[in-house]
Fold:
Amino acid sequence: MRLDERPLVGDARARAVHGRSSGGDLLVVGGAPASDLLESLEPFGLARHSAPVDAHTVSSDLLAAADVAAAASDVPLVVVSHDVRISPVALLDLLDGPRDVTSTAVVDGPVTDLRGDASDVAPGGFAPVRVDPVSRRVTSVGTVRHVVSGPTTYAAGILRVAASDRIRVAEVLRAAATSESAGEPGIQVFDLAVLAVVRDAVVPVAATPLAHVTVERGHEQRPGVVGSAWQQRLRAASRGNDGVFSTHAIRPLSRRLTAYGLGRGWTPNVVTFVSLLLGLAACALAAVDTRWTWVLAAVLLQASLVVDCVDGELARFTRRYSPLGGWLDAVSDRIKEFTLVAAVAWVAARRGDDLWWLAIVVLALLAVRHAEDFAYATRHRALSARPVVPRALDVPGDGGAQGARTDVPAAPTGRARLVRDVKQVLHLPIAERYLVMSVGLLLYSPALLLWALGVASAIAFAWTQVGRLGKALTGRDHFRADQPDPTLPHLVDLAIVPRPTGRGRLAWQLPGLLVAVEAAALLLAAGGDPVARAAAYAWLAAVCWHVYDNVYRLRETGRGTPHALVRATLGVEGRVVVLAIIGGFTDRPAVPLLVGAVLLIVAYAAESARAWRAVIGSAPSGGATDAAADGSTRQDGSS
Structure:
């Protein structure tokens, strides 16, 4: 179970323990640990403390953990159940990640009983837990005494307490040691400790998923994918929730390329740049307008998508994340899409078919959808961030709905899996969009490509709108006016009109609506002039690029566009007035539309460069410097 478990993946630098959050104190609870458990924890530089082996009661172990937690507050504390068996490779994200947060390792099913006799109900094994899907915070833990309603996953048996949380956790564990639950026959020390911290509700416990790796706890095992621990880690570095086509066609290719790059020192940001070059090469070939260049463009576009997945896999495997990397990854995808749509519309115009209006509609649909996605996601994060109400440890229930499910659901199979896959396709993630564009290129038809992309985007938009509006209008969205989204005012490009406070039930619709209004104003201003429509597309592309730039800056750094830039670019309301003047008082709108597009591009690019230089300059030395690709779900992106 050492870090040199073969077959290896990557070079020594890719497999290294960085030490950014490793180190600290270690306490094994519940019994004497197996030697292979201590061997698994050895690479992380933990100072081991001993529980009272002569007793090993629940109370004595909790008191020992409380004493160790209270003894220091400048290093993390790692509490491990004695019956865990795991490779140290699987623990890199939890014990050597870039962030110092209190977190517990969790694993998805299916879980198998190693005894082969399910009739034996002796305590031990994985405990069911409920994890909030938005905040990724553990909200409930099950034990032999405590019921967890709607569990989503299992606790693997390892808790990492951040240095700043140790004192409070010590108080919680000391109180748990004297509770009635500590005397419950068969209760597991580790599970009760995590439950006590979760119910105290002062220290948030994040969930760190251990995907695709083999983990054993007591008499149960969660088997991983076939291969060594490093091969399992490579599989876990590949996102599995980004669409059907990506999962079954793109990711198997990208993992092979990632394994190659890990052995040769590839860095995520360089890979992102290569993906961008491949995508732009595809756009240039499409602009040439021959059947064979369009076929080659389709191939390069898919190659760009494969490479685009590699940067995130490299970052997750090596734990090298950065805000700049996340921004580069997302914005480069938009540049490729915008440029290809423009190239196809340009070819159509050369063939005598003006499709610039359709290109504007497609671009607006893509931007509206993703602006709405992000606004809706941040609204849900705001709602999930509301204070958790503390709950007494000795109360068996967790306050869930009466008759709620108490078993971790099995992975979908058969019809359920088909329904899930159809829903993913309807959402039109990036791999499916690139597939639509590639098929259009292979068919050598600009009109077919743009219409297919537009119709697919419209269906995806309608799909999300129906579901979200249905929940909002029926009150099933858990909206509370006293819990507004603080991000929303930064998502709207308003210079004079007051920005929304987020207290309206449908306020998350406004960012996308403003994009749609400006797109409509551009179409009206351009009129029937094909050249003016091309200039209007450039204007809208600048605005949409700024929307994505702002969204991902908020996502990665928490800071959006300065209001000074919004005022300098007139805001949506000011630009719509300008467009009304252009459409109503000029016979040749192409020139002012093109001038406006150039001015917007210069302003947005200059401010973005300034902002990201400031972010890079303020990054701590030795920190993460390469492309970001955390495990969170992106609304739009392939990494």
